[in-house]
Amino acid sequence: MKHTTIFLLLISSTTPYNILVFCPLFGHSHSTFFGRLADILTEAGHNVTMFTPTIVDEFRNFSYTKLTKDVVYLDPSPKLKAIGDLIAGNSRYWNQEFSLNVIPETSRFFQSLANEQHNVLSENLPLLDELKKKNFDLILFETIFTCAIPLMDYLEIKAFALAHTVAFEASNYYTSYSNPEERIYPLQRLPDASFVFTNSNPYLDFPRATIAKNIQIGGISVSMETRKLGEEWDRILNLRNKNFLIAFGSVILSKDMPFESKVSMARAMKQFPDVTFIWKYEDSDTDKFAEGIQNIHFSKWIPQRELLADARLSAFMTHGGLGSVNEVSCMGKPSIMCPIMGDQMRNTKMLVRHNGSIEISKYDLGNSDLVEEVMRKVLYDESYKIAAQRLSDHLRNQPVSPKDLFLKHTEFAARFGKLSSLDPYSRQMGVLEYFMIDLVLIVTVILVILCLFLYFLLKLVCKMSEKKMKVE
Ligand SMILES: *[C@@H]1O[C@H](CO)[C@@H](O)[C@H](O)[C@H]1NC(C)=O
Ligand SMILES: *[C@@H]1O[C@H](CO)[C@@H](O)[C@H](O)[C@H]1NC(C)=O
């Protein structure tokens, strides 16, 4: 007890700040991420309020914060709920082509989500008035929820920081102003954020140039304190020599996978009698494609992090959601990445680059021989295991932990507010200036003039010498 008190005194040596974490409840991984951020701030002694208006009902059953007790909910309007229903468990993800051309569509979708959330907030001003009394120093939110800007103004919060659950944010700046409804959100104010936290980690991600305002805290939501696995899981892991986990996250459901892919996956698994396959599968219709195959264990829910952390688990197959990618990277398990949509394509390439993972296209899952081949590689080729372990070692021994980076920068932002000195001047430049096209043009013109001058000079000299020769 004494030790904890001293510890608490040590960590709360800075002034406590009032911080509002705004995270509408629409995605499991988003709420996990923001819940973790809230808890880190609470643990450090700050007064944190997590404001999480509901969009997708089913996530109300989860508690995303452990230490943060001040969690404020708000029910959705029927329209907002209807938009939310489009998100989870959509079977079209398995067949739909995801390329650049879906970005405007996705962007419009999130804009409508933010617009409707804005309407819900404006209809609940008494709740906002209660929040206002808490005199927040800082609000933290994700860029897609642009309605946080008018919320921040209403609550008279002077500073904000952005946090992204993705590794690289580009889509939201794509939003057009062609729709007059969108004009209520001053998007051009987003760059005023004191800091922009991204769920990207320099030891995992592609190297790239960035500015000091970008703080990379990728992997922060991967908790290393794993609970003990239950007896039933313990028994399952002890059944065979190796264990292989298959899970596609909470939005993309295995039960919606095309039937021929399920058959092909099950047939591939049958080739490994020495391996138990644990498959997160959300239905009980498995006898249609896996009947008689002994080594597959279907489960509607899995303790993913605990399983990945267990030494008996050999490999993992995932959709490449960033939460899963961060987890498997930290836990150091070889993996098969089967990206389905959105940023998963990028996350996949990012992880495969470290040589501990293999990518397989979702359209190739019907090819049983190929599935078997990649499974065999990650299960039995030691080089994948070694590479995955090396990445894990790097992540666990980062010079500055994502948690420290987040905490120190958030406290700095709460204390000093908007940090215009971190704004690069390039933001005010036009395309010509930014890419130095003006400079290149001037140099080119000078060079051309010089060449022409030399050409005519040479010509003149030649003529003169010819004349001279003639005269001689
Ligand atoms: C934080 O919350 C506690 C308890 O609600 C309150 O006593 C304290 O004044 C708050 N701190 C600040 C800085 O507002
Ligand atoms: C992955 O393997 C390739 C080819 O062997 C190698 O060039 C590259 O450096 C490796 N990448 C890492 C991160 O070790």
Describe this structure in words.
Strand 12, helix 12 and strand 13 (357-359) form a beta-alpha-beta unit. With 472 residues, this protein is an alpha/beta fold. The protein has 17 helices and 13 strands. It has helices at residues 2-11, 28-43, 78-85, 103-122, 125-132, 148-154, 231-237, 259-270, 287-290, 304-309, 322-331, 344-352, 368-380, 382-396, 402-416, 431-434, 437-471; strands at 18-22, 47-53, 71-74, 138-141, 159-164, 196-198, 214-216, 242-247, 275-280, 296-299, 313-318, 335-337, 357-359. Strands 3-2-1-4-5-6-7 form a seven-stranded parallel sheet, with helices on one face. Strands 10-9-8-11-12-13 form a six-stranded parallel sheet, sandwiched between helices. Residues 171-185 have low confidence and may be disordered. 42% of the residues lie in helices and 13% in strands. The protein folds into two domains: 14-201 and 407-418, Rossmann fold; 231-396, 3-Layer(aba) Sandwich (Rossmann fold). 39% of the residues are buried. The site of one 2-acetamido-2-deoxy-beta-D-glucopyranose (NAG) has 3 residues, from loops. The site of one 2-acetamido-2-deoxy-beta-D-glucopyranose has 3 residues, from loops.
